[in-house]
Design brief:
The chain has 234 residues and is α+β, with helices and mostly antiparallel strands. It contains eight helices and 14 strands. It folds into three domains: 78 residues, no CATH class; 89 residues, Homing Intron 3 (I-Ppo) Encoded Endonuclease, Chain A (Alpha-Beta Complex), CATH 3.90.75; 58 residues, Arc Repressor Mutant, subunit A (Orthogonal Bundle), CATH 1.10.10. The termini are far apart.
């Protein structure tokens, strides 16, 4: 990039002390555009690269203010970029459930969260969905689940919070599990065999629904065989 290119760019930008920096030059689609070494470059990307730094190939630059002509670096953030084929593969693994959750059936990682591959880079599925629908995730914030289902990617069940917020939410919802005694674990197994829901069982024993689900799948740390369902009295 030549010095003249940068000077031409800034001549096209209104830079008030507050608010958006509006690009007044040529427009391509909804965005400001300029010619750099014979190539068309979006103005907001040029501003980001000049004032913030390089843009990774798997990221795009978005304006958090919503103004597509804005070039103010404080209003620019990196967001995930995905090809059409990548999006198609992602949506194939998303399945709405009766509870309102959108369950992602890709490879699980620690904590039961779904993991997807975006541009050959692994990414937590719920974070990808949040960026896809709501926009960039600010630095230092977690994407939390209002539904408390790690595999859920419903954008309406996701909200931002600090790590401390997430831990407080975890404690309030009882995700810090207490240990079950052997008799309690047997009782839980019997309730599962009799068709009771994870939510009902978790509430009854004061444990996390994920623990109940682990027991349903035989993955609970204390091995107790699943008993046969008890006959319903006539």
């Amino acid at each position: 990039m030549s010095r003249n290119t940068a000077e031409d760019f800034w001549r096209w930008v209104d830079r008030p002390s507050e608010g958006c920096w509006i690009f007044r030059g040529p427009i391509s689609g909804k965005w400001g555009a300029m010619n750099v070494n014979g190539k068309t470059v979006m103005a907001h990307r040029f501003s980001y690269q000049t004032l913030v730094g390089p843009i990774p190939y798997d990221r795009r630059v978005v304006q958090t203010c919503g103004n597509t002509l804005c070039c103010r670096p404080e209003h620019l953030r990196l967001a995930v970029r995905c090809t059409r084929n990548g999006l198609s593969e992602f949506w194939k693994r998303v399945h709405p459930s009766e509870t309102g959750c959108w369950l992602y059936d890709g490879s699980p990682v620690g904590g039961g969260y779904g993991c997807c591959m975006i541009n050959r880079i692994p990414m937590l599925a719920h974070r990808f969905m949040y960026e896809l629908v709501h926009g960039p995730i600010p630095d230092g914030l977690d994407v939390c689940h209002a539904c408390d289902v790690p595999k859920c990617v419903s954008p309406w069940h996701l909200f931002l919070g600090t790590h401390t917020d997430n831990m407080l939410d975890s404690a309030m919802k009882g995700r810090k599990n207490k240990k079950l005694s052997i008799p309690q674990a047997r009782e839980v197994k019997q309730l599962i065999a009799n068709g009771h829901s994870d939510d009902v069982i978790a509430q009854q024993f004061g444990i996390h629904r994920r623990t109940v689900n682990d027991m349903r799948r035989g993955e609970y740390r204390t091995y107790i065989p699943m008993p046969p369902p008890q006959p319903v009295p006539a």
